[in-house]
Amino acid sequence: MKLSSHRRGMMPTEFDVSTMRTGDQFFWWVEVGELNPSVAIDPILWDQAKRLRAGKVSFSAGQDNLLSVSGPSETFRVLLRPQNDIDLNEQVRIRFGNRTLRLDFDGSIEHLLEDVRRRADRKRGFWVSIDVP
What we know:
Layout: E1 14-19, E2 26-27, E3 30-32, E4 55-61, E5 66-70, E6 76-80, E7 92-96, E8 99-103, H1 110-119, E9 128-132
Parallel strand pairs: 5-7
Antiparallel strand pairs: 1-4, 2-3, 3-6, 4-5, 6-9, 7-8
């Protein structure tokens, strides 16, 4: 018996998504912290809300290891693994608003092992994570 297999494509190096739910906070490279109160809504109260406003989460990996993150939260966790536009042998810069964080990957496997334990994804483990800000 021959079954077709599903293979996940490469993770996008740029995306724009929207969210309103507190449980909908993980998007490829970015894990959003607690949503701003103006965005988060309990699905049970959907019909009673005076104003529905989705929060836009944006991420892009540019040249020279420059990553840009924005969204409806004060905190983010950026998860990194080697891919086309990201070279962990070089310094990674993460831009959030008007701030820039710098990351020098030390080659340790602690982050990778913790990520595999937490997410149970053995095929696409993230090598390092950084909390912004």
